[in-house]
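Comment thread on ticket #2218

A.B. wrote:
> Attaching the input chain for the structure job we discussed in standup.
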Amino acid sequence: MSRPRPRILSIGYDVSVLDSRNRVLEFAGFDVVGCFSCDGALDRFQLEAFAAVVIGHSVPETLRLGLVRGMKQAKPHIPVVVVQETGEYGQDLIEADAVCDSLDNPELLINTISRLIGFAPRSVRTVASRPAAAS
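C.D. wrote:
> Ran it. Output below, let me know if you need it in another format.
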């Protein structure tokens, strides 16, 4: 029997960064819904069920703050994690449930989300250390 995959809303404006972050989270065992629009993200958040939200550093600070506030007002029990640009400081970082730096190891983001929602992620190191299967 497979374990349930927590659903994560992942928001970003940089397509390649968003895609790679989403792939890492999916590999760790999350079901990830990517979103490129802040308005669309807030609508999806209000209408759908998510275990947590990740807002990337490519979203401008003022928009991130609006998202954090809108999401915490709509569903205060759902954790919001903001990925900051190194050296950045703003109200959005204070109001988020957790903050990770854009230069942090991806495992830190995985562990931060996991801790907030009580989920044991798939170990990235265990899977990465296995030899590739011959085809």
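A.B. wrote:
> Thanks. Noting for the ticket: The beta strands are 7-11, 31-35, 52-55, 80-84, 98-101.
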